[in-house]
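ESCALATION

Customer reports they have been waiting on this structure for their group meeting. Please prioritize. Original submission:
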Amino acid sequence: MTPFVAYDVKKGVGTITLNRPDRFNALGPTLAHQLKEVLLNNFAFLKYPKKKFSAPIPSEPRCLIIRANPVFSKKQNAAICIAGGDLKELAHLKKRDALKYVRDFAQICLWLEKLPIPVITVVEGTCIGGGVELFLAGDIRICTKNSTFHFRQLEIGLPTGYGSTQRMLKLFGHSRTQFLLYTSSHVTSETSIEIGLSHFLCADQKILKKTLEFQTQRLMDLSWEAWYCQKRFINMANKNYSHNDIMWETKEFAKVWLNNKHKSFVLPYFEKKKN
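Update from on-call: job pushed to the front of the queue and completed.
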């Protein structure tokens, strides 16, 4: 299988990069599988969840960045960071497979929230649907000026997956979550800062690089014990959802899989493969 998820560590900072240009980094079972493998193979905290860690592991990074290589779309005349779900893959999923796919990404987002190190998610360009949901799982969220966020889920006949309704209610509150999802909102980079979707906005690639260097170094200079404790405090204080809530949400997602509206979007891909 061609690797579409790259991982490297430099100066204590781990970077996971999604790179599937032919699909505009769209999220499907293939990327879910590869992303889970990268996380499990490189972070003992996830591989041994029952073990208590009282200090950082020397061989592991002190900070993690998750990003995608943007791909220019002539049709959209814009750089695409993550083009939502991978319709070419999703078109062939049965209900059971759809449940596994959405639960894999829900688990990935939960892992990012629980990792005992800072997780920085980065968007450069247009980010759609599930891509926004993955972005929201970061502790610190950074976007570039040309970034936009499109909550497209209902437009293609699906609710949010990945347990993200629970996460959005925690981050934005009830009213704003209603607005973002019910209106399939397009959010500009400037608005994303105003509503707390993003924490930092970078004017260009040069400033993004400097911001990442500065923020990762600043975070690594802090006491690991104090930072991890603070992360747990914040997560506990906002714990208005549980693992069971998220699994329920993914189950309901699978129930509406391939309803007529969603089927109209994936049918062209299904017919293409069939022929």
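Sent to customer with the following note: The chain has one domain: 5-204+220-274.
Escalation resolved.
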